[in-house]
Specification:
- The protein is an alpha/beta fold.
- The protein has 2 domains: 365 residues, Alpha/Beta hydrolase fold, catalytic domain (Rossmann fold, 3-Layer(aba) Sandwich), CATH 3.40.50.1820; 126 residues, no CATH class.
- Helix 5 links the parallel strand 10 and strand 11.
- It contains 16 helices and 15 strands.
- The two termini are 23 Å apart.
- Strands 1, 2, 3, 4, 5, 8, 9, 10, 11, 14 and 15 form an 11-stranded mixed β-sheet that branches. A two-stranded antiparallel sheet has the order 6-7. A two-stranded antiparallel ribbon has the order 12-13.
């Protein structure tokens, strides 16, 4: 990738509270098998405003193919967390450069390598990667003590010093911020009539489902497609309560897939292990979970034996847990005899258990914080060296401060159910009968299991026409299945086809 030109501008003003930002525009050429792809990269901040006053600056990286064409698709991309920057999708799968993983998603030795991405989505859509407030280089502007007092608030700055502004760390405010950003970007770059798409991973999938309604209903932004990658859609299904059957049922097929990958299943064929896991979850496991100790002893023994064969776990472990095997429990137990732990985000990846004699696991998850060094190194190198971003801000890849402070202010009563997003996705599909929806998962993901989305889509009560607009696919790999070379290649090919199907008429992307 070679830089052809660089421009700087956008010095901060007093009205922007001297925020340290400076737009950088560079031009590049990426060599693809289909030929050279020339594009412009824009690394900049867009201000969110309350009346006319800036209250936050959202950092984003936009890639626009040259020559510029307003009729080309444009995709807004974000990750989840909450508290995650967009670097995972940016440097993992979609952007023109990516971090180098091992062939099957394993962690390579340091230092981090950044390589040209032959599977970049820029080959068929322009891209805008958004870092929500508090992540990446995006920040909210903290009001001064005088301003707080003028509004009747308590001046905490005099008591504790400078504080992070948590105003945007809330479900509805976060969605409002994304909607405002998208509208401001479309206006700034004159892209209101482009074919528009949104894509999000994990909690970003929750955002996509909610935005599929909100963008169209509240902002007048028509969508050609909504892409949910390893999504968390209905959040109550992710809670491992003794009384929540969905969690255990939806997780189980992914446990079977992981056990089969590590050679721990018994009496299963190579071709139908996934189907067997799904059938068991929907039938025998449900009977045990719903009836508990009321289930006859002989039937329970038969279920335990079959469950042991499917998961590779001992009957003793299964009986002690009453069939409720959480992701954390499974990852510790499956390869305990090898002193290894499976990753919860990709159970095919393992690490050594440093404290095998302790009751609770106290070592690292090889698929969460262990990968931070890869993405932190990759995004900082790419933004600061390749795109020439100049800022003293730290790039926040995953902010646990944001995650732990996240709120749902829409919950008005103690008995309100856990927030979900499937109703909004269904509403959005009804609001716009042309919008296509893609849901993709990794087979070994124990955080947002693929079987959960399969269950939910079967409950949407879609018409035949709507059903034709929804596609679902499971790939080898985990939460970030695109870290597997083969899965990333297949994902790219499938999404190219998805975009072509979502565009009006037969126009080629």
């Amino acid at each position: 990738m070679s830089d052809l030109k660089q421009e700087h501008g956008g010095n901060p003003t007093d009205a922007d509270n001297d925020f340290p930002r400076r737009v950088s525009t560079t031009e590049h050429t990426l060599q693809l098998p289909s030929g050279p792809l020339v594009y412009k990269a824009i690394a900049d901040w867009i201000s969110l405003r309350k009346i006319h006053k800036p209250v936050a600056h959202l950092f984003h990286t936009a890639y626009i193919a040259e020559p510029q064409d307003g009729a080309r698709p444009l995709t807004f991309v974000f990750n989840g967390g909450p508290g995650a920057a967009s670097a995972y999708l940016h440097m993992g799968a979609l952007g023109p450069q990516r971090v180098a993983f091992g062939k099957m998603g394993s962690l390579p030795e340091p230092p981090t390598q950044v390589v040209d991405n032959q599977e970049t989505w820029l080959s068929f859509t322009d891209l805008v990667f958004i870092d929500p407030v508090g992540t990446g280089f995006s920040r909210a502007i903290q009001e001064s003590g005088a301003e707080k007092k003028a509004e009747g608030g308590k001046d905490k700055s005099s008591e504790t010093g400078l504080e992070e502004n948590p105003e945007f760390w809330e479900i509805e405010k976060d969605l409002d911020a994304l909607g405002e950003f998208i509208c401001r970007f479309l206006s700034k770059y004159h892209r209101w009539t482009s074919p528009l798409f949104i894509a999000g991973e994990s909690y970003g999938g929750f955002r996509v489902a909610r935005m599929a309604r909100r963008l169209q209903e509240q902002h007048g932004v028509g969508l050609c497609g909504a892409i949910l990658i390893s999504p968390a859609i209905e959040l109550d299904a992710l809670l491992d309560s003794d009384y929540n059957l969905n969690y255990w049922v939806e997780l189980f097929p992914s446990l079977v897939a992981a056990a089969h990958h590590h050679g721990r299943t018994r009496d299963l064929g190579d071709d139908d292990f996934q189907r067997q896991g799904e059938a068991f979850a929907n039938n025998e496991l449900v009977r045990w979970l719903t009836q508990g100790e009321a289930l006859p002893a002989d039937e329970r023994a038969s279920i335990v034996a079959r469950m042991s064969a499917l998961t590779g776990l001992s009957a003793t472990v299964l009986e002690r847990a009453a069939g409720r095997i959480s992701a954390t429990h499974f990852c510790r137990e499956l390869l305990r005899d090898e002193q290894r732990l499976c990753g919860r985000y990709d159970a095919s990846v393992t690490t050594v258990d440093p404290f095998p004699d302790r009751n609770d696991y106290e070592g690292p998850d090889p698929t969460l914080f262990s990968i931070d060094r890869l993405f932190t190194g990759a995004i900082n190198h790419h933004l600061r060296s390749n795109l020439n971003v100049e800022t003293e801000l730290d790039y926040r890849l995953l902010s646990m401060q944001v995650n732990e402070a996240w709120k749902d202010k829409s919950k008005r009563h103690f008995f309100d159910r856990q927030v979900g997003a499937m109703d909004d996705l269904r509403y959005g599909m009804s609001l716009n009968g042309h919008m296509k929806v893609s849901i993709t998962h990794g087979r070994f993901d124990l955080i947002t299991p693929y079987f959960g989305s399969q269950r939910l889509t079967k409950l949407m009560k879609l018409t035949d026409e709507q059903q034709a607009n929804l596609t679902s696919r499971t790939f080898d790999g985990g939460h970030m299945f695109y870290s597997w070379d083969e899965s990333r290649i297949e994902f790219h090919a499938e999404m190219r086809q998805f975009y072509q199907s979502a565009l009006p008429g037969d126009r080629d992307t």
